[in-house]
Batch of 2 targets.
Target 1
Amino acid sequence: MLSPIRIGIAGLGTVGVGVIKILRDYSNSIEIKTGRTIKIVVVSAKSREKNRDQPIDSYHWESDPVNLALRDDIDIYVELIGGEDGVAKESIEAAISNGVHVVTANKALLAMHGNKLAEASEEREVLLKFEAAVAGGIPVIKVLNEALSINKVTRVMGVMNGSCNYILTRMEESELSYESIFKEADDLGFLEADPTLDVGGIDSAHKLAILSSLAFGTNVNFSGVNVQGIEAISIDDIKHASDMGFRIKLLGVCEMTEAGLEQRVKPCLVPAGSPLGLLEGGTNMVVIETEDSGSIILQGPGAGRNPTAHAVVSDIIDIINGSKIKTFGVPYKLLKNALVSDFSVDAPYYIRLLLEDKPGALAKVTASLGKESISINRMRQYDHESSKAPVLIVTHSTSSESVEKVLKELPKTGVITQEPVALRIEELNY
Ligand SMILES: NC(=O)c1ccc[n+]([C@@H]2O[C@H](COP(=O)([O-])OP(=O)(O)OC[C@H]3O[C@@H](n4cnc5c(N)ncnc54)[C@H](OP(=O)(O)O)[C@@H]3O)[C@@H](O)[C@H]2O)c1
């Protein structure tokens, strides 16, 4: 009989306690799948007194996760504290230097320090696994790293923050403002302690930077992600987009273009009837477009105790079964430094204007668009009682540079009574 695999877990919050429960509840299945039993040896959290939902008294307690990671009686260190720096980073570095495998769900840390951690773990010949870090319960890391291992990925896109999708879909359904639904999501505990991580698009950008590295064999480049959150999305935009057959989603998109690697997180319009358009509430979706296998659509829970903890446990099982897969799919030395593209590939745009209702106003707008070679596909003016007319324009495919220029030019026409809004319409192949 082989000796048990010894685990140390730091962080006993939503995910940490879920991992303890799953390791207990599924101990038989784990033994069948690995031929080994698992023994949780030691745990750590901030407060020893807190009630944890799971009995933990039989485990050793370390108040400092770094000391936990440096112990000589663990084989795998599971980091479930969170945060891009501080004790999460220090303890993972300590575990690696101690020759201990690491499992983490920490996307912020991987987005900021993934390259260095990949180097350290591969040099020390230990594994660093992070299935739960992107889209929680959706096994997207394994799909990219294993199932599609040598497939040429052309684009990855997705809705990777359930809180933003909840806010956007609830706004549409309730016809309430962003501010009201933001408060509702906060009251329900759907937002991070710092909500700008969610609504400001940062959390999605962390995940996108990781996916981009796996998809294109490049170093993780979080600072190369062009990020815009959903804070400025109005109920009017949601209604008008819906009127024109679209839904607004906070999309993360990465693709390798002739101009370099493009990574963007932005509110975009997608066709209402497309899989992304139909995505409701807190659910996540990741679409992987490939040259040889078409588009692969993964949908599921992006967070939550059980789905996320199962993803963590699946990494533990892979380690026990002797996974040899490199951190970001290829040896860290072969990860490329991609040139970052400054502009987005061309796409149609939705432009919303509040126009002075007077003769010649529309002509000035169309002249501005024409100057930037932006041609109009569809235009709609809404009924109005005041002297200001809401106007919507859907353009033909154009460059993001032209749209940026026209947004600066339009207020100079003197016929616009509000900052114009432009949202990209993402073209989907499925
Ligand atoms: N929640 C999800 O659905 C989900 C989904 C995907 C990924 N993740 C990732 O999983 C990780 C954990 O998330 P979570 O939601 O479980 O967080 P959480 O509920 O806030 O739990 C964090 C845990 O870390 C402990 N902790 C904080 N500072 C510590 C320190 N200095 N030393 C030791 N322990 C410390 C806390 O201790 P106390 O309990 O004593 O305060 C708590 O148990 C994060 O990286 C997160 O991004 C979470």
Note: The mean pLDDT is 96.
Target 2
Amino acid sequence: MTRATQAARVATTPAPADEAIVRARGLVKRYGRFTALDDVSLEVRRGEIFGILGPNGAGKTTLLEILEGLRAADAGEAQVDGLDVRRKRRAVQQRIGVQLQATTLFEELTARETVALFASFYPRALDPDALLREVALEEKADIYPQLLSGGQRQRLALALALVNDPTLVFLDEPTTGLDPQSRRLFWETILRLRERGKTLVLTTHFMDEAQTLCDRIAILDAGRVIAQDTPAGLIGLLGASATIECAVGASATGQPPVGPEEVRALPGVTEARAGTERLLIYTEQVERTLVALLQLATARGATVEHLHVHAPTLEDVFLKLTGHALRE
Ligand SMILES: Nc1ncnc2c1ncn2[C@@H]1O[C@H](COP(=O)(O)OP(=O)(O)OP(=O)(O)O)[C@@H](O)[C@H]1O
Ligand SMILES: [Mg+2]
């Protein structure tokens, strides 16, 4: 490559800093002596769906509220569009939409009246009917919130987060408590918003939601970001092409049971661990590992039960990184 073409390449590659709409560095939040966030740094890029994935109490809501400028951190800094979320709070509020973990709706206002009320808080707001269409609630415009289903209520809450036509939308566990069909409907709405150029930051404790919906994910555990990447990048951390789950029964010949240490030595295995009732084996050569595992069990007179092979998931990544399952 000549010097000139090299220079041209450099010139056309945008600086990574320009892509970030949210930038947080070294965030710390303490409640008394308890540290809820411990040195959290992350970057959300423009136009992506960014997921904050973590178990109950991981600090997801605390982190979101700090990024929204609603809660002060004890240390560190957070910016939206290059603006400090506390010092430039007003300007930040105009750019963001917020759906809290629980939204209280007025029983005496219909869906349309609710959206119209929220719209009246802003000098520049979208048309209530257009917003209801956006979240697929146009047919429920004249219904009172208590008559809406859980999924419809969540979509109404999303419409409220969109009234000021924000470029950046924060959603705190938007699909918790929804049935699978309502979750899918909600996902479709979120994907449509991304298509229209919005950036979305959402928290979830659903692995499948993070994996299918999010462009990038920060995994939060006990107040720390333990990994941040695309779903594929995170799964790549396992260095395995398949996960084998099984239960190895007791040896009929009185020999020691087959444990993770022994399994790690089998061909193809990159990692093995004992789960609550199952053995979890990560492998890059699934056939060879399976054959060797069955041979080992047979030699011991032990049975292999509940055998299940699947593509590695974020659940596996979480377990590898934290040593515990997400829903423990
Ligand atoms: N105002 C507060 N005072 C004291 N402790 C708090 C306060 N708010 C949160 N915490 C604690 O901080 C930790 C993180 O809470 P947070 O609500 O951020 O978790 P989360 O990841 O959103 O959990 P969930 O999935 O249950 O919503 C929890 O242990 C919680 O008890
Ligand atoms: Mg929460």
Note: The two ends are 54 Å apart (CA to CA).
